[in-house]
Amino acid sequence: MISFRQMILGRTPGHTDMSETHAGQGKVVVNRSMSLDGFIAGPDHEMDWAIDFFTEDPFPEIMAATGAMLIGRRTHEVAKRMSHEDRDYDGGPVFVMTHQPPDEPDPGVTFLTGDLAEAVATARAVAGGKNLEILGADLASQCLQRGLVDDVLVYVLPVLMGDGVRFSTSGLGRIDLEPFDNVQSGPVTMLRFHVRK
Ligand SMILES: NC(=O)c1ccc[n+]([C@@H]2O[C@H](COP(=O)([O-])OP(=O)(O)OC[C@H]3O[C@@H](n4cnc5c(N)ncnc54)[C@H](OP(=O)(O)O)[C@@H]3O)[C@@H](O)[C@H]2O)c1
After folding, report:
1. Which end of the chain has fewer CB within 10 Å, C or N?
2. Range of the structural domain that residue 143 is part of
3. How many domains, the chain?
4. Ligand 1 site, CB within 6 A
């Protein structure tokens, strides 16, 4: 079964480590599950509604193509809050963007602060030539706004949530996308887009 962290963090555990370097670079991909009405989390950051659709990994090739993640601090906090449901995560190269790194280290993650483009470059450099996933509505919206994202990948889930955390923040503005793939696996429809630059 795909774990909560794998699902919202979009990777297979254990295939790269912090010391890895690489010749080529993968893409920067905003990756998330979304209700049909555009929510990526429920009220109070609830995620159970999405996990129910991922009892099996419908698209293993996506996780296999992923080498590192850059996630927002709130996404990290929600993942920690739900850690009782997910004990098999190996704590690979997860970078957490924050304005205030904690004094104490958090096992399995590296906190980054400062310029967003530099953070993306730092996380991308350890992705082993695979893709860097960007997670969290606030963080991903900023990356889109700054032109740092190559692709958007959405798992559309057959549910209407009515309320919660929206796909993007209200200040995002218009971003034009070019569709290049759509596949259905059971109840999950994967849509993929290039960001027009
Ligand atoms: N459905 C899915 O696939 C999916 C995927 C990922 C996440 N989620 C859900 O999305 C929700 C979280 O998204 P969110 O939009 O609320 O928050 P978020 O983007 O995960 O995190 C926002 C936080 O990240 C830090 N941050 C953002 N931009 C920064 C910058 N430029 N410099 C420094 N720090 C920066 C700040 O932390 P500080 O306040 O510490 O400075 C900010 O408060 C959670 O419920 C999570 O479960 C769903």
Report:
1. C
2. 4-195
3. 1
4. 8, 32-33, 40-41, 45, 47, 50, 71-75, 78, 97-100, 113, 116, 135-139, 142, 165
